[in-house]
Design a protein that fits this description.
By secondary structure, the protein is α+β, with helices and mostly antiparallel strands. The protein is 54% helix and 10% strand.
């Protein structure tokens, strides 16, 4: 599309400001929908890498926090921006993790705005701009990345992608060459000190002064490029230099003690020893953003989708080579080829460091290579627009436009499938996080079996929780003795259609209970408190906690597994089960003790009685563990 044609199309659209506003709202509707989903499903409870902030705040309160600690490795990532966000959240919001979750959302929103700017540069204000921008936003805000949008530590993980979009936006901007080059260096530094994929920003920053459309001879571009190369060399030397050592065992360094180097560089040799696994990991990483759109196991579909995306990338490169004499095409598309190259480079980096694991299709890795798909959307939109306008007559142009719009609609339908899946997973994540919050409150007093909701080992969780609780960063605080704690007991009990204690018994180990529990809003309970009362006593004494034993399930999928091999999800007694045990107090006799269980709502902090009190002495003996 020539410059006069672009100007003509832009002038035509400018005359319809209300239509442009409506189109803009439609294009960014995925951001609005995702914002509501985040507000509904975000939970303030730490998990896994979130325990990092415990050691950070210990140093802050002791006055020993310095830059060396702030920029020290977390595994192999220097998460300076993430730790600064942790400090800001603690100082301004009392450590509520939802502050960092919303920071992540803000980063993605800023990335989307920069991508819209890039698309407008590439396409102009033409009809093809709007479906292309909508597809890009359906990718950026897709809730299949639920872990990235709902896990506080992922703020640092998402920053490098914003930095990439910012560098590319500066690339095509009318800013002076030295100004945009300096900005690119700044963004590369920010990304490098956010997460390891930020290292791949340096080639993009280096290519900007050499290839940006700013006027000037190649000779005038060499000096800025040389300056970028020098800063890049210094940044990489520092990144992997003497300070590349773990500063705290809270940094999840996989067994590496404080002061030792992270293991990531040593994994390179292992990856080179099994090139087949490394290659499969690389291709699966590339296909991960679209793998869940198909019914097969995403570990398999990710590989084949990755192969397809790589072929499409080769086709896009072939088109650019074919039209190499058209300088405008290169100017419009080169930033997107840089974005695609960044994604492939990140996948290569992942393959070197992670190919020993079968985790290329993890949901929180989707963003790692998402810019390959985004770049292909932008390039496809440009090629389709060029193809339509190159038609010889109006009939051919109309037919080609119909094909292009059909492809856009088909792509949107494919992404909608991912959205439905992702919104379900966000709700399941919330249920798991609330169950983790309920268990965490009593972590000092019992040993959970579902410890994976919080971290790998009980010892690590207890240590991290004690540190964070001492700093006032656990909400609600850890319970020091059995009781209702933050939960307000309710008077009305849940009926048998929602909750029931199906087994209660005593032996030498204490009181055993089994049952099922749904909350009044239909959600599976987040945990169950076990309480007893001696004789006709008035008060109930909490003596234990029972975990929910089932997977989270939604009403619209219950019947899908009715005849499967797993739990019958059409039967409440299986999909909302709980099991637990507690020690009977020494001053209580089983012959004169009533028991009452309470279903916990860890979102509203209320406790609902499950049925009526039952005499322990009248109950059966406990079943063997596991039945």
């Amino acid at each position: 599309m020539g410059v006069p044609e672009v100007a003509e199309a832009e002038a035509a659209v400018r005359g319809r400001a209300p239509l442009r506003l409506l189109l803009f709202l439609i294009v960014f509707s995925p951001a609005v929908i995702l914002g509501f989903a985040v507000a509904e499903n975000a939970v303030d409870v730490p998990m896994w890498d979130d325990w990092e902030r415990g050691g950070l705040w210990e140093r802050h309160r002791a006055g020993t926090l310095d830059f060396n600690y702030l920029d020290s490795p977390h595994i192999e990532h220097r998460i300076l921006t993430g730790r600064l966000a942790m400090l800001a959240g603690g100082l301004w919001f009392g450590g509520d993790l939802r502050f960092e979750i919303w920071l992540t959302y803000a980063v993605v929103l800023a990335t989307a705005l920069l991508c819209f700017y890039l698309l407008r540069y590439t396409l102009g204000v033409v009809p093809a701009l709007w479906p292309a921008a909508l597809l890009v936003n359906l990718l950026l805000f897709c809730p299949q990345q639920y872990a990235n949008f709902l896990w506080a530590i992922q703020f640092a993980y998402m920053v490098p992608f914003f930095c990439l979009a910012a560098i590319l936006a500066a690339w095509v901007s009318p800013l002076p060459l030295w100004c945009k080059t300096s900005f690119g260096v700044l963004m590369a530094l920010v990304g490098t000190h956010s997460f390891s994929q930020g290292l791949m920003l340096w080639p993009v920053a280096l290519g900007m002064p050499l290839c940006s459309p700013a006027p000037g001879s190649l000779r005038r571009r060499v000096l800025p490029a040389a300056a970028v190369a020098l800063v890049m060399a210094a940044a990489l030397a520092y990144h992997f230099g003497p300070s590349f050592r773990s500063s705290s065992h809270f940094s999840h360094t996989h067994g590496i003690e404080t002061g030792e180097r992270p293991p990531s560089l040593g994994a390179v040799g292992e990856a080179m020893g099994d090139l087949d696994a490394a290659g499969r990991y690389l291709l699966s990483s590339l296909g991960n953003p679209l793998a869940r759109a198909f019914g097969s196991d995403q570990r398999d579909s990710a590989f084949w989708v990755g192969c397809g995306l790589l072929l499409l990338s080769a086709g896009a490169a072939a088109f650019a080579v074919w039209r190499r004499r058209d300088g405008e095409i290169w100017a419009r598309l080169l930033p997107w080829f840089a974005a695609a190259g960044f994604a492939v480079a990140v996948a290569f980096l992942l393959a070197l460091g992670r190919s020993a694991t079968d985790r290329a299709a993890m949901p929180h890795y989707i963003s790692m290579t998402q810019f390959l798909v985004i770049a292909l959307v932008a390039i496809a939109a440009y090629v389709a627009n060029w193809w339509v306008r190159s038609a010889g007559d109006g009939t051919a142009a109309g037919r080609r436009a119909a094909y292009a719009w059909g492809a856009a609609v088909a792509s949107a339908v494919l992404l909608v499938n991912l959205w439905v899946y992702g919104l379900y997973k966000m709700e399941a994540w919330k249920g798991s996080r609330l169950q983790a919050r309920a268990a965490l409150t009593y972590i000092r007093l019992f040993e959970p079996t579902k410890i994976g909701r919080l971290d790998a080992t009980l010892e690590f969780v207890r240590e991290g929780a004690e540190v964070m609780d001492s700093q006032g960063l656990i909400h609600p605080p850890l319970a020091r003795e059995w009781g209702f704690g933050p939960y307000r007991p309710q008077r009305g009990s849940l009926g048998q259609k929602r909750a029931k204690v199906t087994r209660c018994a005593t032996d030498a180990l204490g009181v055993h209970v089994d049952g099922y529990a749904l909350l009044p809003d239909g959600r599976i309970a987040d945990g169950v408190l076990i309480s007893v009362r001696a004789g006709d006593g008035d008060g109930w004494r909490v003596i234990g906690f029972a975990e929910m034993r089932s997977l989270h399930a939604l009403n619209n999928i219950f019947l899908d597994t009715q005849f499967g091999q797993g739990p019958n999800l059409a039967y409440i007694g299986q999909y909302a089960r709980f099991r637990g045990r507690a020690d009977l107090p020494d001053d209580f006799s089983p012959t004169d003790t009533d028991l009452l269980c309470w279903a916990l709502d860890a979102e509203r902090f209320v406790a609902f009685p499950i049925g009526d009190a039952v005499p322990i002495a009248d109950q059966e003996e406990p079943a063997p563990d596991g039945q």
